[in-house]
Amino acid sequence: MAGYGWTPELDQLFAPLAEAGLLPARIVRVDRGQCDAVLADPETGELRTVRLDTRRVGDADMINCPCTGDWAAVDLHAQPMAAVTALLPRSTAIIRKVAGKRSDGQVLAANVDTVLIAASLAADPDLGRIERFLALAWESGAEPLVVLTKADLVDDAEFIRADVEAVAPGVTVLVVSAETGEGIDVLRACAPGTAVVIGQSGVGKSTLTNALAGADVMAVQQAREVDQKGRHTTTTRELIPLPGGGVLIDTPGLREVGLYGGEGVDLAFADIAELAEECRFHDCNHHTEPGCAVRAALADGTLPQRRMDSYLKLQRENEWIASRSDARVAKARLNKWKAITKSMRAAGGPVKR
User: Which of this chain's residues are annotated to bind Zn(2+) (predicted)?
Assistant: First the structure.
């Protein structure tokens, strides 16, 4: 299982589960109530893929449900089919807010070392969306890396890379072409272990996955020539082994990238955070306070207004998520107390807080 990311630390963590007769497996694909996972055959030691029931783990909270990249404890003798009985703690997790007005989170991939943020050079990259993806990646605990695809279709790739690097402080930005092979070897070297590819539909994620895997492991549907939006034939997140070791998780195109709170925004906008440290007041709101280094940078053009607007927008989203999460926790506590009160009254006992 070493090629799939198994480590001595995981082996030690899994020891109590092994004593109970369970086997470690890595989830490669999740369907409704079931998943495919790779494990070492207990008799031969050879890796094989098994179909598993996942209904014994997780709950209504999607964050705790099995997802691609999870390490699972498997009972091969469970009836009516082999089943996942527990999940190991995640080292990292890419969590986005579900679509719409709900504040729940959805895990896109777990136990990831590198997040490959794919953007196509065939159209002008949306810098605001890249910033949003970077915040999502930083918040996961993994290392972000921006991959500018389809370099064979443009002549000004290096100029575009410079623009992207300006909104990705501390992040490597690579220019690649899956068609010509440009930058693919460098990308492999920069993303060892477990990597996940995220991005919009039509940016070349599946083509990039095929290039890294050295085979046509993912079906690809061409993007429309006019607007480059296209449709992505990937409908589920799938973990794919790479030649030479390591794995890659390919994901469907993300139309909405809602953040789920945390410090990802501050890490994605590290340049603004550094400017804020130079403000006269440590609690500066960057509005009307004297000696504000952020407003000074906006005035002299070293900090683009577009980037500041993007930063403030994502901060507001985080604040909204935090307020909704607090309300959800309070509601859960209230419901629990109501259930206890109802139970105690039914039993005829006193109700104490």
Answer: 279, 284, 286, 292
